[in-house]
């Protein structure tokens, strides 16, 4: 490999990614960000369908380049015995496998848990699906949109007098990818601890990381279930607010909008003083959050009257001086110009052919930081099959003629 991963936390680990779209590739991206050698297996000719999503020019979308950074692309036809055999050979040389097919798909392709375990008893397998590997809905297909509705999120997004909205990104997929990556790392830690204690590994037959998109969404729904179970409370959509917490909302200024979170008891007093409403700051009925929530419309009207006569910069300067959490509502251009993101390496500029020849393009950095700035993005999502020859030769030890014969057979 051309990049230097030796000092990264996951250096020396190899992961086979059998994933399309966003969830499993997000897990693979996180592992690759921190040094794992992630070998992404893609179908011949078309590859991961994400290559065509939000494609503005060329053959590979910048969405794909972003979510598959740091990986190596290998083209294999998993519907053929030859392709399955190569995957099993890769598994013998790997630590983990990621997949996000419908449950049972890999079994039909000759890549059952039993075969994976026979190839590598130490292998950690992470499976991402709509509803998990067990239960009555396990066989159903589903994307993040379905999971976000099923897990309770969609009901809370949007204005109360309109149908539910969706967040502007596939948040259910991304959350599931985070859990899958976390599951892989914890399973690898467990594997090493068992080995140190002289205990046999838990292979794919015994244990796997099972991430359901619907459950990943449910897991971030805070007290949705206990509030209903204990008190009969059903949360509803409240637009830009947060149920039961006030004042916190988006507010219009003369030249844009800001988000202000003035809902802490001490913060509220400073907030009201800053907007020249000492009467609200001193009101005994507004000293605790429940009462503020009951009068949220009155508070939002007072705040909006103040912000509406000022620019965003003026509003943010006053609130920063008063110690009130607030920030601008950023679009892409704002993020590119933001000094905070820049200072922490969260906007990184890399050269890529985005369909009109090589150009320098801004990409998001790597989270979390292990120092003052982001780790550098070493490489963007690869061209389809860019590393097939390299992996077959360097990892599996095939010679040139065998590689060319294989590639010709699956072309």
UniProtKB/TrEMBL annotation:
State a single Pfam family of this protein.
Answer: CoA_transf_3
InterPro entries assigned to the protein according to its UniProt record, in alphabetical order: CoA-transferase_III_domain, CoA-Trfase_fam_III, CoA-Trfase_III_dom3_sf, CoA-Trfase_III_dom_1_sf
Q: What are the protein's GO molecular function terms?
A: transferase activity
Superkingdom of source: Bacteria
**What EC number(s) does this enzyme carry?**
2.8.3.-
Q: Which UniProt keywords apply?
A: Transferase
- By its UniProt entry, which PANTHER family does this protein fall under? SUCCINATE--HYDROXYMETHYLGLUTARATE COA-TRANSFERASE
Q: What is this protein called?
A: CoA transferase
Q: Which organism is it from?
A: Kineococcus endophyticus
């Amino acid at each position: 490999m051309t990049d230097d991963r030796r000092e990264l936390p996951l250096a020396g680990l190899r992961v086979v990614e059998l994933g399309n779209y966003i969830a499993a590739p997000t897990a693979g991206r996180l592992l690759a960000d921190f040094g794992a050698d992630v070998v992404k297996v893609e179908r011949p000719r078309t590859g991961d369908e994400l290559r065509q999503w939000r494609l503005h020019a060329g053959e590979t979308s910048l969405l794909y380049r972003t979510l598959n950074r740091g990986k190596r692309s290998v083209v294999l036809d998993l519907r053929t015995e030859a392709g399955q055999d190569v995957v099993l050979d890769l598994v013998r040389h790997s630590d983990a496998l990621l997949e996000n097919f419908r449950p049972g798909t890999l079994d039909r392709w000759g890549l059952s848990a039993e075969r994976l375990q026979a190839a590598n008893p130490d292998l950690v397998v992470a499976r991402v699906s709509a509803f998990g590997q067990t239960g009555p809905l396990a066989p159903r297909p589903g994307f993040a949109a379905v999971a976000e509705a099923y897990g309770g999120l969609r009901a809370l997004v949007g204005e109360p007098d309109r149908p539910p909205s969706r967040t502007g990104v596939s948040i259910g997929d991304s959350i599931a990818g985070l859990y899958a990556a976390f599951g892989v790392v914890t399973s690898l830690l467990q594997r090493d601890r068992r080995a140190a204690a002289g205990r046999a590994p838990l292979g794919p037959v015994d244990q796997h990381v099972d991430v359901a998109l619907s459950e990943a969404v449910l897991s971030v729904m805070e007290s949705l279930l206990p509030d209903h179970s204990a008190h009969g409370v059903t949360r509803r959509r409240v637009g830009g607010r947060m149920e039961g917490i006030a004042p916190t909302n988006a507010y219009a200024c003369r030249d844009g909008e800001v988000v202000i979170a003035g809902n802490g008891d001490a913060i509220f007093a400073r907030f009201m003083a800053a907007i020249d409403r000492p009467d609200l700051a001193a009101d005994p009925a507004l000293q605790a959050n429940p009462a503020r929530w009951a009068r949220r419309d009155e508070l939002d009207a007072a705040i909006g009257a103040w912000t509406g006569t000022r620019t965003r910069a003026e509003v943010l300067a006053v609130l920063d001086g008063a110690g009130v959490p607030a920030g601008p509502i950023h679009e892409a251009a704002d993020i590119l110009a933001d000094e905070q993101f820049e200072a922490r390496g969260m906007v990184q500029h890399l050269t890529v052919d985005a369909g009109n020849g090589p150009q320098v393009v801004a990409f998001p950095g790597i989270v979390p930081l292990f120092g003052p700035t982001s780790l550098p993005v070493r490489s963007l999502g690869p061209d389809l099959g860019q590393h097939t020859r390299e992996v077959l030769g360097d990892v599996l030890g095939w010679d040139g003629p065998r590689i060319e014969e294989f590639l010709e057979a699956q072309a």
